[in-house]
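Record type: monomer structure entry
Structure origin: computed from sequence
Chain ID: A
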Amino acid sequence: MTPFPISEAQPIFHDNALPGACDVVVIGGGVIGVSTALFLARAGQNVVLLEKGRIAGEQSSRNWGWIRVQGRDPAEIPIAIEAQALWRELAAQVDADIGLTQAGVAFLADKDSELAGFEDWLDHAHPHDLDTRVLSASQTAALLPQATTGWAGALWTPSDMRAEPFLAVPALARLAAKHGTMIVEGCAVRLLDVEGGRVAGVVTERGRIRAGRVVLAGGAWSSLLLRRHGISIPQLSVRATVARTAPMDEVFAGGAVDGKLAFRRRTDGGYTLAPSGFHELYIGPDALRAFARFLPQLWQDPLGTKYLPKAPASFPDGWGTPRRWSGDAPSPFEAMRVLNPAPNAAKVAGLARDFSATFPGLGDTRIAAAWAGMIDVMPDVVPVVDRADALPGLTVCTGMCGHGFGIGPAFGRITADLAMARDPGHDLTRFRLNRFSDGSKLTLGPNL
């Protein structure tokens, strides 16, 4: 079993010599980059995937493990539906059990006013024939009979799924390698190679690779590389704390969240726990630069984010992190191979108390491990998935806003098609890169 948390101390699994040239370079070994590389390789492209640290070392292995359509932005719903179908197909093709289970997702309402928001989201679900429905208080109690919390109701989607992220994404990477993707871990891309105003490849710490097309799927690091090349996006990263319990009796087979706590059954017999709606933002140059764009989101949920005055050294938005560097010297991407923030210890202790209080019949909750990840977020809570007009040959897929794992295979397929100048099969207007510069008003996605 893959050690977790995945870190730079873990031995490199994918170690290949860099080629001089290829068709497409994919930057980033998270679920988006891995899925993109897989679909490019299946389309007959000569693909090199470069990861500065380890495959799935960052947020792609540190998330809750939910694969849901419920609560998605309207523009994401058809893509999330495709992603669920792809997860089923891929789970049968990988070389390991990734824990894919259809057990449903429930958003639990602490008060009646929250149910109105759930009802509003059903207007988006109905055109897609989703099995989502709003449950009454008594129906919610029947769904979670061992809980002592008296919820007002719930938004419930029985068809939503779960999987184990730190098993799933490395398994997808091995599948991509089987289909011909050359994966190189521990190799940072320092710069894009630009000739005549268009992408001509990448400059890595091990040398250049010539390629007419490059995909950037760098998660929390994407905006740093883009800014170095004159492309600015208001992407920030927030710290999210997560924990897993020791094995416990099953009280719910799926995933659920209320105003305090998110929990998901795990294949190892425990639960993944996380504080509901709580993130921590390190204040850095990008945070100050993008503050005005994030005001509507902050106004909608003013208490959901805690502000920390200074990012640890070498974080993407750290005060000392270089914004200018050359291709012939170490870059910020080499200074921190795996972004591995410490979890919030007080929140971890609170998770154990809240889970025990919700399900007292389980007895004391023993936390077996805790970790944190940095979620790349955008002001309107939807990602950027687009070709970069300013740099022909560059395709960007970033800012997944905590949705990346579940929706990743579909956005990977879409990004592969964008890189090959094919029809992506979905309306991507909502995810265009220039929405931050064309004067259009940003519309917040559902806060679910």
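Annotation 1: The chain has a mean pLDDT of 96.
Annotation 2: Residues 30 and 56 are 5 Å apart (CA to CA).
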